Amino acid sequence: MADGPVNVSGAICHIPELWAADSRDAVEANVVLAGLVDNETVSALKGGPGDTLNIPYISNPSATTKSANTNLTWEMMGPSDAEASQVFTSSTHQYVAFAVENIVDVQSKISLRAKYAGKAGYVLAAAADTNLASLAASFSNTVGTLGLEPTDDNVLTCAQNLDDANAPEENRFMVLRPSSYYALLKSDRFVRTDYVGGGGEKIREAHVGRIYGFDTYKTTLITAPATGQAENYACHKRGVYFCSQQLKSNNQFFVLMDSDLVSFTHIYGYAEALQPPITAGGGTATDVFNNLLRGTS
């Protein structure tokens, strides 16, 4: 028998491996866009029935100067003497599905079904936000340069574009990738209380604030078309439509698999909202309530 103390090798059968009481879960991005855009206009589709909603336009009529002793001229409303409309469809159908064997449910220290159910809700919400973010690439108003830090002048241009389109002052928002967000914080105007709603200290701490009339958010779900680039939102709420038609979960026990089957589905639609112009007599509706603010990621 060898001399010496009992060491790890000799006592290996008495030293247990332990597992933490909880798991370290994958991080989650901020999900913000779906709650900022226009859900009300297209709410008739929520819960069904139907997959298409026609949104009619109303044009501004013309103000005509009347000459003495002449009859009024009756105006045919709308461009080309007929009002137009936008067609909105709900056609995106996404899901998360998984099964947990009964033996796992019994023996696992952590409830995997509960953990993955929570993740499923996040993943579906993030997928919808990612699709909404992809619309920015087609916005008609483009400000800034991909790969270069956005400036306060860029934000002012976005604000002026909305002013020129007669967009309401309320419900304007920016959603930025973190790099673009922090680039704006380098400007003195974004940390001074006379420029920023909510106080400069909040902005210095990177809390969401109000900048030049835009409620400002940051998330990594904003599209990065290439490394170091970002296609940020600087919009009015009524510039984009979103309808979450159904978000549903299903759970059943499948005897042949001795497993709990769990599925989550999300049916929704999203689109740029087209705005009829201020022009008397009407004209082509465009996406003037939106800005693509290019920047860094």
3D architecture notes:
With 297 residues, the chain is α+β, with helices and mostly antiparallel strands. It has helices at residues 33-36, 102-107, 112-134, 152-164, 178-185, 200-204; strands at 52-56, 85-89, 92-101, 141-143, 172-176, 196-197, 210-211, 214-218, 230-236, 240-254, 259-272, 291-295. It has a seven-stranded mixed β-sheet with strand order 4-12-9-5-8-7-6. The protein has a three-stranded antiparallel β-sheet with strand order 3-11-10. A hairpin with a 2-residue loop joins strand 7 and strand 8 (214-218). The longest helix has 23 residues, at 112-134. The termini are far apart. 30% of the residues are buried. Residues 198-207 have low confidence and may be disordered.
Question: What descriptors fit this protein?
Answer:
7-stranded mixed sheet, 6 helices, phage-related protein like fold, single chain, alpha+beta, elongated, 297 residues
Largest sheet: 7 strands, mixed
Characterize the overall form. elongated
- Contiguous uncertain segments of 5+ residues: 198-207
Please tally the helical runs, counting DSSP H or I stretches of 4 or more residues: 6
Strand content: 25-35%
> How do the SSEs run, as a string of H and E?
HEEEHHEHEHEHEEEEEE
User: What is the correct CATH architecture?
Assistant: Alpha-Beta Complex
Extended strand count: 12
Cα end-to-end separation: 65 Å
Structural class: alpha+beta
Radius of gyration: 27 Å
CATH topology: phage-related protein like fold
